[in-house]
Amino acid sequence: MKLYDGGRAPNPRRVRIYLAEKNIEVPTEPVDIGALAQRSPEFTALNPMQRTPVLVLDDGAVIAESIAICRYFEELFPTPPLFGTGALERAQIEMWQRRVELGLLSSIAAVFRHLHPAMVEMEVPQVPEWGEANKPKVLDFLGLLDRHLADREYLAGSFSVADITGLVAFDFLKPAKLAVPDEFVHVKRWHGTLKARPSAAA
After folding, report:
1. Which residue of 46, 102, 108, 200 shows the fewest CB atoms closer than 10 Å?
2. pLDDT of 26
3. Which residues constitute the domain of residue 148?
């Protein structure tokens, strides 16, 4: 088994944080996405989407997409449960995982990919107007999140994969050159709680 890791990018980091929470060790191979190593023929043969992370099992089976990789390990190592237990909790975690992924992480990524000079070769074509259009979407979702977290420590009851997605999204604000308004005190408190977990350093 080997995990092809793309470094500090949000999606590879999601898997590393998840594995750290589970105390699972997996051999890794770095993929230099800054040098566009994900576009090499060798990597493309593993994942035609040319994105990290990718998990290759001992029998050669390949699993791409960060949440799919996490779900695989959740089936093998169900404790502690990071996708929930019982129908309702699992559904609520899935709901917030999707909301944060699509409503926050994707919008921040659009700002970064379409406005940051370092992304010129990776995001073709860069559409600056699309990057700018996503800035208010980020703020709108942070406001929604702040209201939701007013009386909660985590997004869906106990700490879960939804919070992991939220952590990597929140940390992606800085490279995207986006700031969190001071009035979003609940979001900032939540982020501080997540950053204090040892897994956040993964």
Report:
1. 102
2. 98
3. 87-201
